[in-house]
């Protein structure tokens, strides 16, 4: 499947917040296949434009964030062990016994070790370790390591994409490379239909540390409509049905003050009309996505959010259904086509 191949390529590539260069080049190549123009802005966002058929001023911006959470070298001790800190929302409980890649002068492989259970106390086994207590072992001495690694180098978890049963996959950085994949699925569908609106697809940077890429790109583009595609908490046994969304049942359409009501209602109606599975997600405050800076950019942008269900968020085993990504792309494309029949000034009024 083409989506699986895309996600394998993207998730196995490094792109920690503020250090997205490696994955950015791959996304740029994918956008170039479908877009009339692809640019990189000063912050590092990749902005693709697929022009509408009429050039009548209608415009929509779709975002999926490019960056992933990760780690950064903060010290190398006398024995050659690397101390590190986090970039973005890393849960230190998930780091024990992980293989890692230190992106120094060359890629250096290491492991985050742990004291053997045979010699730990009961109290040590009961308490979670803090990130300050964890060390990376590369096998190098300090003298040799200093030739290859320096303070400030980024670190990623070494993880290949895993194919599970049916159409489920698991790996790192599916938050939000899955969103990028859904934009590509949307562009692929739009290549075979007529759409009046200019479509801007934006792979935003630094979302995990403050939605920074969406701030600058939405200011530059100034679209009439902005839709953020991100991931939502996939249902697992410990989560209530009100806090999570189901894998395999389509994207969740977000409702709340960060969302323009007409955008929500129209996306929902398109899903019904086109027989696309969907769910509803409630965001009573900000959505925690690129939609927040889009909504308040310049004089304001009418925003929407689609959330792709994802289990085990911010771990190296994030799990997702490929069908949900495909459905998200299909819903986006059909929504854009539906704008052909809409008078935008009236539609965008509250």
From TrEMBL:
Gene3D superfamilies registered for this protein in UniProt: Peptidase M42, domain 2 (2.40.30.40), Zn peptidases (3.40.630.10)
Keywords: Aminopeptidase, Hydrolase, Metal-binding, Protease
GO molecular function per UniProt: aminopeptidase activity; metal ion binding
Superkingdom assignment: Bacteria
Any matching Pfam family: Peptidase_M42
Active site (catalytic residues): 207
An annotated GO BP: proteolysis
Binding positions for Zn(2+) 1 per the UniProt entry: 65, 175, 230
SUPFAM superfamilies per UniProt: Aminopeptidase/glucanase lid domain (SSF101821), Zn-dependent exopeptidases (SSF53187)
UniProt remark on cofactor binding: Binds 2 divalent metal cations per subunit.
Cofactor: a divalent metal cation
Amino-acid positions noted as binding Zn(2+) 2 in the UniProt annotation, renumbered to this chain: 175, 208, 314
The UniProt record lists the keyword Transmembrane helix: no
Similarity field: Belongs to the peptidase M42 family.
Protein name: Peptidase M42 family protein
Organism of provenance: Alkaliphilus oremlandii (strain OhILAs) (Clostridium oremlandii (strain OhILAs))
């Amino acid at each position: 499947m083409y989506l699986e191949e895309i996600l394998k390529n993207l998730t196995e590539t490094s792109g920690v917040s503020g250090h997205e260069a490696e994955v950015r080049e791959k996304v740029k190549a994918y956008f170039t296949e479908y877009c009339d123009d692809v640019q990189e802005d000063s912050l590092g966002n990749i902005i693709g434009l697929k022009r509408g058929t009429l050039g009548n001023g209608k415009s929509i911006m779709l975002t999926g964030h490019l960056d992933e959470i990760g780690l950064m070298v903060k010290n190398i001790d006398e024995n050659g062990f690397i101390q590190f800190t986090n970039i973005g929302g890393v849960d230190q409980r998930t780091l024990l016994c992980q293989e890692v890649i230190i992106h120094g002068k060359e890629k250096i492989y290491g492991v985050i070790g742990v004291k053997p259970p045979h010699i730990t106390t009961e109290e040590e086994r009961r308490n979670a370790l803090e990130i300050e207590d964890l060390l990376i072992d590369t096998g190098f001495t300090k003298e040799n390591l200093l030739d290859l690694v320096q303070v400030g180098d980024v670190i990623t978890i070494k993880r290949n994409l895993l194919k599970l049963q049916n159409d489920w996959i698991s790996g790192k950085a599916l938050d939000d490379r899955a969103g990028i994949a859904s934009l590509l699925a949307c562009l692929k569908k739009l290549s075979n239909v007529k759409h009046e609106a200019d479509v801007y697809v934006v792979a935003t940077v630094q979302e995990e540390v403050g939605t920074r890429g969406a701030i600058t790109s939405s200011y530059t583009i100034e679209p009439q409509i902005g839709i953020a595609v991100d991931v939502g908490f996939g249902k697992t046994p410990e989560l209530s049905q009100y806090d999570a969304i189901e894998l395999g049942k389509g994207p969740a359409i977000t409702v709340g003050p960060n969302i323009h009501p007409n955008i929500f209602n129209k996306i929902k109606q398109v899903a019904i009309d086109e027989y696309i599975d969907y769910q509803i997600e409630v965001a009573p405050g900000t959505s925690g996505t690129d939609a927040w800076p889009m909504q308040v950019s310049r004089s304001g942008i009418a925003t929407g959010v689609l959330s792709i269900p994802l289990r085990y968020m911010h771990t190296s085993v994030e799990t997702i259904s490929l069908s949900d990504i495909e459905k998200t792309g299909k819903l986006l494309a059909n929504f854009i086509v539906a704008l052909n029949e809409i008078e935008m000034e009236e539609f965008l009024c509250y």
